Amino acid sequence: MRPSRTHVNAAAKFQTAQKKLTGTMPALQTNPLKATTKHSLPEYSRPDAPLALCVAALLLFGAIMTQSASQYIDPLDPMLIARKEILWDAIGATALGVTAFTDYQIWKRIAIPLFIAAILLSAAALVMGHASFGAQRWISLGSFITFQPSEFAKLAFIIYGAKFIDERSDIRTFKDIWPVLLTGFVLIALVLLQNDLGTAIIIFAIMMTMLLMSGIKLELLLVPILGAASSVAAIIALSPFRRARILGFMRPLDCYSSASYQICQALIALGSGGIFGRGLGQSLQKTGYLPAPYTDSIIAVIGEELGLIGVCAVIAALAFVVWRGIALSRNAADTFGSIFAAGAAAWLGTQALLNIGSNVAALPYTGVPLPFISYGGASLTASMAAIGVLLNISMYKRQTK
To answer: Is the dihedral of CA 189, 241, 205, 218 positive or negative?
Structure first.
């Protein structure tokens, strides 16, 4: 019996479909991510190049300004601080490289041990740390290495908070967030015992930002916010050192008062620079008038040497870094990456705001370094490690299909 034309056409269509299916099999085998669903692993992409370039530019600029601001610290060795800064830059760059090429999911797995270690180191600073400028927050390892545990505690707390929020599918009530509040306030208490109000404010800003990003309503955070504000007011009222800083903030041009001397000298430096500055290396205030010219007050030296234009350029670069962190928080592949990016942006943004605001007498003096620019090993290393994690997060895109 001869096959009908209908059977012949059906067989031909089947063979054609089989060839098409067979031809697509190698592609599916060599690129399995193309066949994944929207709930599968995100696609790999290039890291955030603009963020990396901006941080590299800030790091280079910071090294140049640190050398300029510290050249009169030791008249016999003008490069003393600069050499140490170059070493810390190398350590920071190494930290960035390690975290940038480490899958950021690994930090979620070790979040609790990291945070416990941060708490223990912060507590150790109270026992075996040494005091400087009214605060006991540094631990010395030999004659060269001195680090501040609270700098690494910021990073550890962000990782822990991001892990906690990532593991909660629905955060609606106060009982859903109390573990983050409890651990955050424990860390803040340890930092306050070190007499470091500036870092405590930064950690609080990180905590509030991460909790708001979790989706909880703002009114549920009013109690901890009001409690924190009341605690800060009480600390200032009970601490002669803090009261003096508030008085210095209220009378910034009283250069004869020890409370306002640093603010006054910073304002003189900024005013002397005008729009275009005296020129790189030509600051007069750094020669012995301005305290901490290469650490907390480096923005004042930048203003004197490079003028208002230089200060605005620094602010724009730091704002760009914060903006990239916010953008990564919105586009991260998962909740952990999103919360981490938001916490890191809050950290760097708040720290820059406190530093610059203190030097222009817009905020009471807190004594925190300017990110990526001020001299400081622990602060720079921790900040660079955080940027590395952000770069790794940027390598993965949220699935839209």
So the answer is: positive
